[in-house]
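Human: We require from you a protein record containing the residue sequence and its fold in C-alpha coordinate form, and nothing else.

Assistant:
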Amino acid sequence: MQEENKDQNKIKELEERISELENNWKRALADYKNLERRTLEEKEIFLNFSNETLVRSLLPLVDHMEMLVKHVDDRGLKMILKDFQRILESEGVKEIETLRKDFDSGTMDAVDTVEGEKNKVIEVISKGYLLKGKLLRPARVKVGKGN
Protein backbone atom coordinates (compact mmCIF):
# COMPACT_ATOMS: atom_id res chain seq x y z
CA MET A 1 0.00 0.00 0.00
CA GLN A 2 2.79 2.39 0.97
CA GLU A 3 4.66 1.37 -2.14
CA GLU A 4 1.56 2.15 -4.21
CA ASN A 5 1.26 5.66 -2.64
CA LYS A 6 4.93 6.31 -3.37
CA ASP A 7 4.36 5.29 -7.00
CA GLN A 8 1.27 7.50 -7.28
CA ASN A 9 3.13 10.44 -5.71
CA LYS A 10 6.02 9.86 -8.11
CA ILE A 11 3.56 9.74 -11.04
CA LYS A 12 1.91 12.95 -9.82
CA GLU A 13 5.32 14.65 -9.48
CA LEU A 14 6.30 13.56 -12.98
CA GLU A 15 2.98 14.73 -14.44
CA GLU A 16 3.46 18.13 -12.76
CA ARG A 17 7.00 18.31 -14.08
CA ILE A 18 5.79 17.42 -17.60
CA SER A 19 3.11 20.10 -17.35
CA GLU A 20 5.68 22.66 -16.13
CA LEU A 21 8.08 21.79 -18.95
CA GLU A 22 5.26 21.97 -21.49
CA ASN A 23 4.24 25.43 -20.21
CA ASN A 24 7.87 26.59 -20.35
CA TRP A 25 8.17 25.27 -23.90
CA LYS A 26 4.97 27.06 -24.98
CA ARG A 27 6.15 30.30 -23.35
CA ALA A 28 9.54 30.02 -25.06
CA LEU A 29 7.86 29.38 -28.42
CA ALA A 30 5.58 32.43 -27.95
CA ASP A 31 8.61 34.55 -26.98
CA TYR A 32 10.46 33.37 -30.07
CA LYS A 33 7.49 34.19 -32.34
CA ASN A 34 7.25 37.66 -30.77
CA LEU A 35 10.99 38.18 -31.25
CA GLU A 36 10.71 37.08 -34.88
CA ARG A 37 7.79 39.51 -35.46
CA ARG A 38 9.60 42.41 -33.76
CA THR A 39 12.76 41.70 -35.77
CA LEU A 40 10.80 41.82 -39.03
CA GLU A 41 9.11 45.07 -37.97
CA GLU A 42 12.46 46.64 -37.02
CA LYS A 43 13.97 45.49 -40.30
CA GLU A 44 11.09 47.12 -42.21
CA ILE A 45 11.43 50.35 -40.21
CA PHE A 46 15.17 50.45 -40.93
CA LEU A 47 14.60 49.75 -44.63
CA ASN A 48 11.95 52.48 -44.87
CA PHE A 49 14.24 54.93 -43.06
CA SER A 50 17.16 54.21 -45.37
CA ASN A 51 14.91 54.45 -48.45
CA GLU A 52 13.53 57.75 -47.16
CA THR A 53 17.03 59.12 -46.62
CA LEU A 54 18.14 58.08 -50.11
CA VAL A 55 15.03 59.41 -51.85
CA ARG A 56 15.19 62.68 -49.91
CA SER A 57 18.78 63.19 -51.13
CA LEU A 58 17.75 62.46 -54.74
CA LEU A 59 14.87 64.97 -54.87
CA PRO A 60 17.11 68.00 -55.56
CA LEU A 61 18.52 66.07 -58.54
CA VAL A 62 14.96 65.58 -59.85
CA ASP A 63 14.29 69.31 -59.38
CA HIS A 64 17.43 70.24 -61.32
CA MET A 65 16.66 67.80 -64.13
CA GLU A 66 13.10 69.14 -64.43
CA MET A 67 14.43 72.70 -64.59
CA LEU A 68 16.95 71.67 -67.23
CA VAL A 69 14.26 69.97 -69.34
CA LYS A 70 12.31 73.28 -69.36
CA HIS A 71 15.31 75.11 -70.85
CA VAL A 72 16.95 72.46 -73.03
CA ASP A 73 15.03 70.51 -75.64
CA ASP A 74 16.89 67.22 -75.42
CA ARG A 75 15.01 63.96 -76.00
CA GLY A 76 17.62 61.91 -74.17
CA LEU A 77 17.41 64.09 -71.07
CA LYS A 78 13.61 63.83 -71.11
CA MET A 79 13.85 60.03 -71.31
CA ILE A 80 16.31 59.89 -68.41
CA LEU A 81 14.07 62.13 -66.29
CA LYS A 82 11.01 60.02 -67.11
CA ASP A 83 12.89 56.80 -66.20
CA PHE A 84 14.13 58.36 -62.98
CA GLN A 85 10.59 59.44 -62.05
CA ARG A 86 9.27 55.96 -62.87
CA ILE A 87 11.87 54.38 -60.56
CA LEU A 88 10.94 56.75 -57.73
CA GLU A 89 7.26 55.96 -58.30
CA SER A 90 7.94 52.21 -58.17
CA GLU A 91 9.58 52.79 -54.76
CA GLY A 92 6.42 54.49 -53.45
CA VAL A 93 7.28 58.13 -54.17
CA LYS A 94 4.29 60.19 -55.27
CA GLU A 95 4.18 63.82 -56.27
CA ILE A 96 1.70 65.93 -54.30
CA GLU A 97 -0.93 67.45 -56.59
CA THR A 98 -0.99 71.18 -55.79
CA LEU A 99 -1.63 73.50 -58.73
CA ARG A 100 -5.13 75.05 -58.59
CA LYS A 101 -5.93 72.93 -55.51
CA ASP A 102 -7.00 74.25 -52.11
CA PHE A 103 -4.03 75.12 -49.92
CA ASP A 104 -3.26 72.32 -47.45
CA SER A 105 -0.88 73.26 -44.65
CA GLY A 106 -0.21 69.57 -43.98
CA THR A 107 1.43 68.99 -47.36
CA MET A 108 2.31 72.51 -48.54
CA ASP A 109 4.36 75.49 -47.39
CA ALA A 110 3.04 78.88 -48.52
CA VAL A 111 6.00 81.05 -49.48
CA ASP A 112 3.90 83.98 -50.71
CA THR A 113 0.36 85.20 -51.24
CA VAL A 114 -0.47 86.62 -54.65
CA GLU A 115 -3.48 87.85 -56.60
CA GLY A 116 -5.79 84.98 -57.38
CA GLU A 117 -8.59 82.84 -56.05
CA LYS A 118 -8.54 82.81 -52.25
CA ASN A 119 -6.71 79.83 -50.69
CA LYS A 120 -6.00 78.21 -54.08
CA VAL A 121 -2.48 77.33 -55.16
CA ILE A 122 -1.57 79.75 -57.93
CA GLU A 123 2.04 78.74 -58.53
CA VAL A 124 4.31 75.86 -57.49
CA ILE A 125 7.81 76.91 -56.50
CA SER A 126 9.01 73.37 -55.75
CA LYS A 127 7.11 70.12 -55.88
CA GLY A 128 6.21 68.18 -52.78
CA TYR A 129 6.45 64.41 -52.42
CA LEU A 130 5.02 61.57 -50.36
CA LEU A 131 6.82 58.29 -49.73
CA LYS A 132 4.34 55.47 -49.18
CA GLY A 133 1.80 58.01 -47.94
CA LYS A 134 4.24 59.75 -45.56
CA LEU A 135 5.22 63.35 -46.22
CA LEU A 136 8.73 63.39 -47.61
CA ARG A 137 8.93 67.03 -48.61
CA PRO A 138 6.15 69.64 -48.56
CA ALA A 139 5.39 71.53 -51.75
CA ARG A 140 6.45 75.18 -51.70
CA VAL A 141 3.66 77.22 -53.26
CA LYS A 142 2.22 80.67 -53.82
CA VAL A 143 -1.37 80.96 -52.63
CA GLY A 144 -4.15 83.26 -53.85
CA LYS A 145 -5.22 85.95 -51.42
CA GLY A 146 -8.52 86.71 -53.13
CA ASN A 147 -9.53 89.43 -55.52
Q: What stands out?
A: Helices lie at 2-71, 75-90. The chain is about 60% helix and 20% strand.
